[in-house]
Amino acid sequence: MASTLKLHTKAQKSPVKKKRNKSSLSPHELEKRKFSRGIVGLFTRLSFRRIKTEGKEFTFLGRTGELDDIFVYENVVVVAEYTVGQPSTEHAAKKNLLWSRIVNNQQAWVSFLCDTFLQFADAFNEGDFDASEYRVRVCYFSKRTMSEEVVNCISDTRFLDLTTFRYFDALVKTIQKSARFEFFAFLGLAYTEIGDQIKDSSNETKAFRGFLLPANFSSFPPGFKVVSFYADPNTLLSMSYVLRRDSWRDPEGMYQRVLMRGRMTEMRKYLTSQERVFVNNIIVTLPGPTMINDLHVSGKNLTEDETKLVRPVTVAVPRASNVIGIVDGQHRVYCYHEGVDVYEAKIKKLRTRQNLLVTGIIYPDSYGEVERQRFEAKLFLEINDKQKKAKSDLKQSIELILSPCSNIAIAKRVIERLNAGGALKGMLQTNYFDPPTLIRTTSIVTYGLRPLVKVGSKDSLFEAWPDPNKHELLAKQQGGRAGANDDLLVDYVDFCVKSINALLLAARKALGSERWALADKPKDRHLTPTLINGFLVCMRLLISQKSLYSQSVYEARLAGFGSSNYKKYKSSHWSALGAKIFGDYF
Fold first, then answer.
1. What angle do CA 160, 374, 286 make, to 5 degrees?
2. CB 388 within 8 Å of CB 370
3. 136 SS3 class
4. Is residue 397 domain-resident?
């Protein structure tokens, strides 16, 4: 073990450490304690074991520090840091001096933990892993939104702000222990690194017996392959992923609904009472390396000609996590999750015994990531558009993928950017799991931003955009030819964000930081969707008069706005408020 690594315990006035009275804690300490309890609860439900480290100062490889918590699951170690204040680059960089030593010297760190913390030594001895087989990750939990500057200054650290934490907290309360598969993906851990899989690399693929349906029998585009096979829920739970809206993944590539806890309970009740499998099929996408083999000749891949006929086959999928993408049927798969409810005793047996009918789609080799996302999103919409729950917000999320140049897609990108920096930084509710205290953005996107950013309109920012090639963007929108990373589209979004922020920053100065801040109760707020939309309407009136200004000019014009009676404008009266601002100050 690491005998040269020393532990330093803070001096105590008495041998018996008394608990601090709750009333003696500062508001900051109370807030952090409540936040940390939620995080500990999350890890506990994920079946991690907590190693208490708070208050113990130690030196590891020449760097002295403290840790808030350590959590262990089999051979996975998570070092956890909590903060409820606004994260700063300086604070994170200072912490990273220790974190980087931990991540870059994982075997030595595990040995050090055994020597230093008795609880960890017990967990190590109860397991069956060598120190070299452990995988260590650092997680920085923040109750506040973290800037890109903070995140980008540190590598090899997983950042979870309150929104991401709330997502995982809701997921683990819905599918309980099975949520760990997605959490491992968030940690950047491969299937072969977790638990006993780290000791066995012999089974590199998972084989399913099924049938091949060639493109000429399925009407899919040339090069696509469609297979049908049966898979047990336990395998699907460990190898699948879902592109859920409002998850931790790239928000512009997500479209499916979050798992509904009530629906999950009803389906688990059905499984245990009826004791039969759901008969409708699950629609998935399979990874490129999936092999279609001759059923009767082990390991023999089918030739191109042989794939043109309907025939029984073996479908060999790379054995890994997050390789089977569920397009439709996520509730039917995840209702078999590993839970702690009254249904678990029966479902535990069904998880490996029952089989679900799966239809798998294999893309042509020529399909890139963007083409795959568009195909999956369109397929999902085709399947779900006739159902009541495929509502407008879901369609808007899909539109970001299918039509990134549409006016609503541009408006949604702009609201994300406004929340990332400027006058409204961290104040907008752009995600289902954002705290409810933030400003809701549905009406801002629909009634304020969409007409303001509309491509081709005479009273939108498109008219004021000085780019000489801007009409190419209109042509691309009409032809549906622009991608999310199209240079013209990116430039236009940048122009919109900068122009809007110039006006809103001036408005913030006119109101004062106290009134611009978010009061605890929405009824006490000065900053509301109505006020924000009022300024966006005012900007459209300015554009119609060809009178956009710099931030300094806006500040001069709006100098008396703080004393105006803007609070009398409620709900959807933003048009009247916008006209009033324009008439009085411009």
1. 80
2. no
3. strand
4. no
Helices 162-175 + 261-274 axis angle, to 10: 20
Pair (126, 62) in one structural domain: yes
Distance CA 480, CA 388 (A): 27
Residues 140 and 249 in one domain: no
| Domain final residue, candidates 158, 193, 228 | 193
In a domain, 291, yes or no: yes
Beta strands in 111-171 (DSSP E): 135-142, 157-160
Note the pLDDT tens digit of each residue in 329-349. 888 999 999 998 899 999 999
- Tell how far CA 409 is from the center of its chain: 19
563 and 581 share one domain: yes
Q: Are residues 135 and 174 in the same domain?
A: yes
Q: How far apart are CA 418 and CA 254, in angstroms?
A: 20
Would you call 240 helix, strand, or coil by DSSP? strand
pLDDT tens-digit series, residues 371-420 = 887 787 777 777 765 544 445 555 556 666 667 788 888 998 899 899 98
**Distance of alpha carbon 503 from alpha carbon 537, whole angstroms:** 12
Domain stop point among 357, 391, 425: 391
Q: How far apart are the first and last CA of the chain?
A: 73
Closest-CA residue to 116 (of 42, 64, 193)? 64
Q: Is the residue at 264 inside a domain?
A: yes
- Rounded to two decimals, the pTM is 0.74
Distance CA 514, CA 139 (A): 33
Task: Flag whether 396 is in a domain.
Answer: no
If you average pLDDT over each of 183-197, 256-270, 273-287, 515-529, which comes out highest?
183-197
Q: Pick the more confident residue, 539 or 56.
A: 539
Q: What SS3 string covers 38-95?
A: HHHHHHHHCCCEEEECCCEEEEECCEEECCCEEEEECCEEEEEEEECCCCCHHHHHHH
Residue 444: which residues within 8 A CB-CB, separation 6 or more?
A: 415, 428, 529, 532, 533, 536
Q: Which domain holds residue 570?
A: 403-585
Q: Could you give the residue ranges of the DSSP H alpha helices within 208-339?
A: 215-218, 233-239, 261-274, 330-334
User: Is 425 found in the same domain as 279?
Assistant: no
> Which CATH number fits the domain that encloses residue 61?
3.40.1350
Q: Is the dihedral of CA 59, 61, 65, 69 positive or negative?
A: negative
Question: Looking at the structure, do residues 289 and 309 belong to the same domain, yes or no?
Answer: yes
- Please tell me the total count of domains within the chain: 3
Q: What is the pLDDT of residues 207-229, one digit of tens each?
A: 899 888 876 667 777 778 889 99
Question: In terms of domains, do 158 and 231 share one?
Answer: no
Rounded CA Rg of the chain: 27
Q: How many CB atoms lie within 10 A of CB 504?
A: 23
For residues 154 and 462, what is the distance between their CA atoms, to the nearest angstrom?
A: 37
Pairing of strands 282-286, 324-328: antiparallel
Sequence length of the chain is: 586
Q: Which residue has the tokens 């959590």?
A: 71
DSSP single-letter state for residue 301: B
421 and 303 share a domain? no
